[in-house]
Every structure is written in structure tokens, then in C-alpha cells.
Amino acid sequence: MAPAVVFMLVFLGWPMINALLIAFQSAAGDFTLDNVQRLFRDTDFGLAVRNTFLLLAIVIPLEFTLALVMAVVAQSRVRGRDFFLYVWSFPLAISDLAAGLVWLAVFTQHGYLNSILQSLHLIQHPIGFLNYNNLAGLVLAVVLAETWRSISLVMVVVMSGIQSIPAELGEAAEIMGAGAWRRFRSVTLPLLKPTLQVGLILRTTAAFQVFAVVLALTGAGLPVLATKTESWVYEARNYQMGAVYAVLLLLLSTLTTLIYLNALRTPRAVFQR
Amino acid sequence: MLAYGCAVLITLFMLAPVYLIALAALSPTSAIFDYPHVVWPTGLSLENIWSFVTFQGVLPALGRSLVVGGITVVLSLLLGCPAGYAVARYNFRGRDLLQLVLVNVRAVPLIIISIPLLVTFIEWNLYDTVLSVALLHTAITLPFTVLLSASVFIRVPGELEEAAMSLGTRRFGAVIRVVLPNSITGLAAAALFAFVTSWNEVFAATVLTQKSTTLPAQVVSQLSVSPLPFRFAGGLALTLPAFVFIFFMRPYLFSAFRVGAP
Hints:
heterodimer, A: mainly alpha, MetI-like fold, 73% helix, globular, B: mainly alpha
């Protein structure tokens, strides 16, 4: 028991505190706020923040809606359900880098999307989805790739939540005359709140760190906070700036977590029967 | 049959990109210049895969990914299983808190621990080594291993161990002879999960290594200078383990991610 706890404290707990320390130090070791100032004046800082939030704001509602649809479909005992679930779980084991590369084949200049559109005579010339100045195209590609990659995880979370809702409640509502949509809105959704809360916290924290998908699809065309962090550390070898970005990410994740905890609070009484 | 239609559409969405990358990777290299591409195979070739695999640095990186994955699995199990056993069998003070912490550790951003650990590893002279990546991967997978192994051990009735102990073995012997054989499949799932997590992890691997790259880190370092067929072949190579993994993990998927109402 103890070795595991010690290990995690050393490799998980201590680094978190260390990150805060490093972020506020200069290379020589004295404490300073210089790094923070540099952060706000960094090239692409504003872009990186905007892009990160933009991606977040689109991907998360999209994924959760889709996951709810998938979970409801999976509940409804269609033929071939096991096969569907097997296929829908594939992306769980795919790395974000692979996901980015997979969708690269689709969105690149002479890729499959342009090929299909051209063959159907919907376009005259290939569309430069991934051109550095085509914000809409870049965002579309990253949103699709990110959603595709992580929908499985959200689906699994939502499904395990739906499965823990007792069937009698839905049946009782049905007997009282509620249609499918009404049942969903008044029975399923409220009881899903704890599940949604946890799922949102985990997914949002992960979304702040979106890295390899963006890198594979856009190179440096769509800066996000994680790619900025990596370039400071890997290319510029400036660990202090990397730490500052990391601390910013931690702050943003903590903030959204607190918002979710507050907004999706469920009073204990709901679960007492 | 709206439900069925939705299911089919979603399945197509899931499968299409995988089919396409396989097509792109397995077509002749010259096909990259054909436009528009056709979505059915017009001639399969292993050229792209071959040039990817024989490209300098790729095979060693692949080997290193295997080594890192292996070390991660071993360490994660060695540290995690005893902890999981303790959680399953003993009711100690702080057990609930521990479980809560373990579940919530997933919410800690990987980036916030990678950077300081990089600095620490440099100080410990471990920078750019396979060991450093393995240590970090172990740290990430340890909570899962503890929780998964706990849920596996709980399913083995305590009475079996007590029966074994009343026949003369001590607790350790009872564990080896009774608990472990009954939990092999669950522990295998935990090992598989740890391995795949390590295999796929890209941010920390990129940041912690320079020359001793794992496969994802190697591909990242060459992303901007590699030709498209190379990248597609790399994408396919990184994707393949997923199918094997999901096939074996299916029964455990829901218990591993269960976050239901209290």
C-alpha cells in the first residue's frame, strides 16, 4: 500500500508544487514575476488562448450530445448492439497523434475529403482546409479529429451513468403518459447530473491540453496552449516559461472544475429512496 | 428504426477514417500525387510502410516504446496490485479518501507534472532516458491499476483465502495460491491498459526525450519535415494496437470508467 502512495506523491504530488515554484523563478534561481509578464506578451499568446477556448467550446457540447445519442441508442436494444459498441470503443485505444494523422489523410490538400467533393463535382478546385490562414478549415479539422478520438471515452462515462438509472423510474413516467422526449428530459437528464459533472470535469481538463491532434493536423497553424508549452520547453529549452504555461493550464482547469462542481450540484435528497 | 439508422451512421463515422488511413498508407507511394483520390484500393503496396519502418530512428524508437511500455506495466503492477489488495481487503482509515483521490487524480493535467519532472530528471541525470519516461507513465497509470486491481480482488471471495490459511499457508501464500489465479484476466486487463496508455502517450514522451525517443515522440519530431506517405504510414502503425487492445478490454471497459451516482 505504502509504496504506491509514496510513488504517486513523488511523481505526481511533488511536481505539481514544483511547477508553481519553477514558474516564478528565473533561470538563475531567484524569484521573479518576469516569466508571467513574458507570458502575457508572448507572440501568439492571445491566439493560443482564443484557439484553446474556441476548440473547447465547440468540441465539448458536440461530444456530450453525441455521446447521449449513442448511449440512448445503445440502451434501446437494436440488433447488432454488441458489434456497434465494439466499433464505437476503438478510438479509446488510439493515441491523439494517430488520430491527428488519420484525419490528416482526410483534410490534406489532395486528401480524401477534397477528392470526394471534387468527384461529386461539388467543388472546382481543392479547398485548402489546412491552410494557415483558414481558421474555419483548421478548426473544423481539429474539431472532427478530437471528437472522433475521444467520443468513446465520453460515451462510456455517459453509458455507465445511464445504466445506473433504475428502469422503474422511466417505466413509471411512461405509465403516467410521458413521451420519450419528456422522459429523457425529466427523468434521465436530472439523474445523470453527477455523471455529467464528472465527465465534464475530466473532458474539459483534457481539452485544455489538446496537443498532438493540433500538431499533426495544423503544424504551427493553430497555436494552442499546449503547443506553446511544448515549443518553449523543447525548442527554446526555457523550462521556466514552460512551467508558467503549465501553471496557467492548471489554473484554467481548476477554475472550470469549480464551475462544474457548483453548477451541477445535486442535492443529496435526490438519491434517497 | 431511427435508432438503428443513427447507429449505422455513427459506426460509419468511426470506421471511415481508419479505413482511409489504411488505404493511404497501403497504396503505392506514387498514388499520393493522384487527385482526386479514389476511395477504393487501386493497387496495394507496402512501400510506405517499408520506408517508414526503415527510416532512421523509427525502429529503435519502436523498440524503446516497447521497453517503456514493459517497464511501465511491471512497475505499475508491482506497486499497484498490493495497494489494490489493501483497498479490497482491509478497511483502513482513510480508505475512502484514498479512493476519492485516486479517482480524481485523472483530472490533473499531464502538462503540469511533465515540466517539473523534466527539470527534476535533468537534476537526477535521467534526462533523455527510457527510464524517465517509464517512471512518469507509471505515475499516470498507477491510480488506474490500483482501482482496477481492487475491483478484481473484491470479486474473489475472502473465504477462499481464509480456507487456504486454515489449511496451513500464511497470508502471502494464500494470496499467491488463491487470489492471483482467480484474478489473472482482470490483472491482464490492467496490464494491457497500462501498456497501451504508455504506448500512446505523446506529450511527456516528446518533452522528456531528445535522442531516446519513443515512437510517438519520434514521429512528432519529424512531423514537419516528413512527406505525407511517411506520416500516413506512421499513423497506421500507431493505430494498430488499438484493435487488439479493445478486443481484450471489452468486459472491463465499464468498470474501469464507472462514475455512476452514489
